[in-house]
Design brief:
Strand content: 15-25%
Shape: globular
Helix content: 40-55%
Structural class: alpha+beta
Largest sheet: 4 strands, mixed
Oligomer: single chain
Number of helices: 10
Radius of gyration: 19 Å
Distance between the termini: 23 Å
Length: 283
């Protein structure tokens, strides 16, 4: 099955996803500086330019792609703001922490340029400026003089010497990989009627989308496993809300016109339950 993305663009996209997947895995295994090559890939995907022309990869692969807005409220950030945290941090009581929610995935979606122009952490810092600062000064180059963006985001430390800069790059990467996978699946469904037939034949259950496998195998493969309603106990989820959501959706969706999907995030946790509605067959 294929998404319809141009072959060369798909090759570049798959390379970026693989670099991100490998380095996110390394980060969670203690290689805390592996956020740097991830930042370089995020620049390539989201905000790359050449001779002042936007050559970012995601808009080329997925024209019109929209992304969810940051959490919190942009109106809370003004010239007096020292540090504004739009994300939700969780702490496990064992010295570990996680940036759980950086983007409001139940809220509004923005076009790419508007998404990049959102203010992040302070009134003078945008998502674009943050990604490019980490990528240009640490990911692709070795700049001895940090700018104000790096001074701020690397001065905020969490347990285990993890910086706000590193945690934010990892959170952005996890979100972007998830968005790429879902968008590629939707494109694939539109091109391949067999996907609808396969989902209907499997019946009531959930397709599990492991984003590590997506990063490894690429968007033209999109590997996912199917777990029937009788075997949902095989899924290990640490969030009871997600367990309840999944149970409710499995009982109510229509397998003849919809596909139930759960993504497993790059931090190995269940991320979100999606109901992919198939397009009506052409008359």
């Amino acid at each position: 099955m294929h998404t319809g993305i141009d072959h060369q663009l798909a090759e570049h996209l798959n390379a970026s996803l693989q670099v991100i997947g490998v380095n996110v895995n390394a980060y969670y295994n203690g290689a805390l500086l592996s956020y740097r090559p991830i930042a370089a890939e995020l620049r390539k995907l989201l905000c790359d330019t050449q001779s002042r022309r936007d050559i970012s990869l995601l808009p080329q692969c997925f024209p019109g792609m929209q992304l969810h807005s940051l959490g919190g409220s942009q109106s809370m950030i003004d010239g007096h703001t020292v540090l504004y945290m739009p994300g939700l941090m969780s702490f496990d009581g064992k010295g570990g922490s996680e940036m759980e929610i950086l983007f409001n995935e139940s809220g509004a979606m923005l076009a790419m340029q508007a998404w990049l122009d959102q203010r992040l952490f302070s009134s003078s810092m945008t998502l674009r400026e943050f990604i490019r600062s980490v990528a240009d000064k640490e990911g692709a180059h070795a700049d001895k003089v940090p700018n104000d963006t790096l001074k701020l985001t690397k001065s905020v430390l969490f347990p285990g010497d993890e910086t706000l800069a590193a945690k934010s790059i990892i959170a952005i990467a996890r979100y972007v990989v998830n968005g790429c996978a879902i968008r590629a699946l939707v494109m694939m469904e539109r091109m391949n009627p067999s996907l609808r037939k396969d989902a209907a034949a499997r019946g009531r259950g959930v397709h599990v989308f492991d984003l590590h496998k997506v990063c490894h195998m690429g968007v033209n493969a999109l590997p996912f496993d199917f777990i029937s309603i009788d075997n949902l106990s095989e899924l290990t989820l640490d969030d009871e809300t997600r367990v309840a959501d999944l149970s409710t959706h499995v009982k109510s969706f229509d397998p003849n016109s919809e596909m139930l999907l759960m993504t497993i995030d790059l931090n190995r946790r269940g991320r979100r339950v999606y109901c992919i509605r198939f397009q009506a067959p052409a008359a």
